[in-house]
Specification:
The protein is of the alpha/beta class. Helices cover 21% and strands 30% of the residues. The protein binds uridine-diphosphate-N-acetylglucosamine and calcium ion (CA). The site of calcium ion (CA) has 3 residues, from loops.
Length: 469
């Protein structure tokens, strides 16, 4: 079945999205809707993929650079037939052309493969994927004679009795690649929308005595198109359910799947438990045996096995095995957290590596640092990385202990095995195995409080006498 060419029509305006972004670039479960269609075509065995772009062509091309997709531009949107015609040079030949619409991301590779299989067994001029739906409004209606499709009538051009037909055109077709372009030259735009309809080739083939067959979609949900933001949300919901169910079948527990968001490229290991309100976005990989409690957001990050993330955010970072994060930690981009580390409550950490077994348990800002093994960063420690002009690095070597409420003014190094006394402001290197104290020395003035109380008492008595006299 290999070697068919997929042509994806994606040049339409998408007016109803009310957007400055081309419609097919709006995201569903983390990637542009067109990406889902391309992936389904690839997975179904398409040897070549041609995307017809129009509105925002450059943006669309850029979004799919390096993904093995060919683009042709339809400068003016004159209809779906005119759109396919633009791919003539790229797609005409001996084989099969599969046509898909770029705004229908719920189509699955399995359905496409099944239709291509059906088409290659029967070899008609065209196969149309159809679906029976409750409400056919807005779709092209299938006019049939048993297995054969005689015509597809657009809603706007349909007669009242044709409008009652509830079998619709999905917008997915297989064509004989040596026939369809010739047929397209015969399509006229004498319809209510003044467009060259791809669907008109069905009648043209019939007139030529060729076969057009219907192939019913297994699941009508697959052919839901996206024209506005409500349909975008609907597609997100359907796909989200599919993705989460897939991971549940792989052994992941979702306590309340309806409250979670998992993008299409996320992977999750078995026996990981995901509580309500967890968002796993972009290229995120979660190991096995983890516990993630929401609200949490993990984006473009990888988490090892048996780690715990409680009510935290992790962006563009890597976290190893057996790590505990949160509650309320914020890991900004560029963190590399080694095994058995603890990043505790109200800790913000950025562009920092933390060595095995180290702890940053409470209330700290850690930026641009390299922290060694078994380091303890006391509560309230601030890594002072920014001088208002440049960012600087702090090194805290193996086994160091930073007392609470210290400031480490970068660039600075705390060498291995040394201590920083609580409340210190460190501006110079702390040598190995030493103690740095950098705060005003405490002085006790004996009896000062007693004297003060006595003085206040005397002043009150004097004042009383004056007021009474
Ligand atoms: C189309 C079908 C209709 C079917 C429905 C399924 C036609 C004439 N009608 O109607 O039978 O039930 O899809 O959703 O094909 N496009 C271009 N260039 C154009 C016009 C459209 O690339 O000049 C692309 C659009 O970006 C979109 C797709 O073709 O991805 C479908 O176009 P759209 O205008 O949405 O067609 P419908 O009216 O929905
Ligand atoms: Ca449409």
């Amino acid at each position: 079945m290999n070697g068919f060419t997929a042509v994806i029509l994606a040049a339409g305006e998408g007016t109803r999205m009310k957007s400055d972004i081309p419609k097919v670039l709006h995201r569903v479960c983390g990637i542009p809707m067109l990406g889902h269609v391309i992936n389904a075509a690839k997975k179904a065995g398409a040897g070549k993929i041609v995307v017809v772009v129009g509105k925002g062509a450059d943006e669309v091309k850029k979004a799919f650079e390096g993904q093995g997709v060919n683009f042709v531009v339809q400068a003016e949107q004159k209809g779906t037939g005119h759109a396919l015609m633009q791919a003539r040079k790229e797609a005409e030949g001996d084989g099969i052309i599969l046509v898909l619409y770029g705004d229908m991301p719920l189509v699955t590779a399995e359905s496409i493969a099944a239709m291509v299989q059906f088409h290659s067994e029967h070899r008609p001029a065209a196969t149309v994927m159809t679906a029976r739906v409750q409400d056919p409004t807005g779709y092209g209606r299938i006019i049939r004679d048993k297995l054969r499709v005689l015509a597809i009538r657009e809603e706007k051009d349909a007669l009242p009795e044709e409008k009652t037909i509830n079998e619709i055109n999905s917008g997915f077709y297989c064509f004989d690649a040596s026939l369809v372009f010739e047929a397209l030259t015969k399509v006229k735009n004498d319809n209510r929308q003044g467009e060259f309809y791809l669907t008109d080739v069905v009648e043209i083939f019939n007139k030529e005595g060729r076969d057009v067959l219907a192939f019913e979609a297994a699941d009508p949900l697959e052919i839901s198109g996206i024209n506005d933001r409500c349909q975008l949300a609907f597609a997100q919901k359907v796909m989200q359910k599919r993705i989460i169910e897939r991971w549940m079948k792989e052994g992941v527990t979702f306590v309340n799947p309806d409250t979670c968001m998992v993008d299409v490229n996320v992977t999750i290991g078995r026996d990981t438990i995901i509580y309500p309100g967890v968002l796993l976005e972009g290229e995120t990989h979660i190991g096995g045996g983890c516990l993630i409690v929401g609200p949490s957001r993990i984006k473009d990050s990888s988490i090892g096995n048996n780690s715990e993330i409680i009510m935290s955010q992790i962006l563009e970072s890597t976290v190893a095995d057996g790590v505990k994060i949160g509650p309320f930690s914020n890991l900004r981009p560029g963190c590399r957290i080694s095994e058995e580390v603890k990043i505790g409550d109200f800790v913000e950490i950025k562009n920092t590596s933390v060595g095995p077994g180290s702890k940053v348990p409470h209330l700290s800002y850690v930026g641009d640092a390299v922290i060694g093994r078994k380091v303890n960063i006391g509560a309230g420690t601030i890594f002072v990385n920014y001088d208002g002009y440049k960012k600087h690095q702090t090194m805290v070597e193996d086994g160091a202990f930073i007392g609470c409420n210290s400031n480490l003014i970068a660039p600075v190094t705390v060498k291995s095995g040394s201590y920083v006394a609580a409340g210190s402001t460190i501006t110079r290197e702390v040598p190995e195995d030493s103690l740095a104290v950098a705060r005003a020395r405490q002085e006790n003035i004996i009896g000062w409080a007693e004297k003060r109380r006595k003085k206040i008492k005397e002043e009150k008595i004097e004042g009383g006498i004056r007021n009474n006299g």
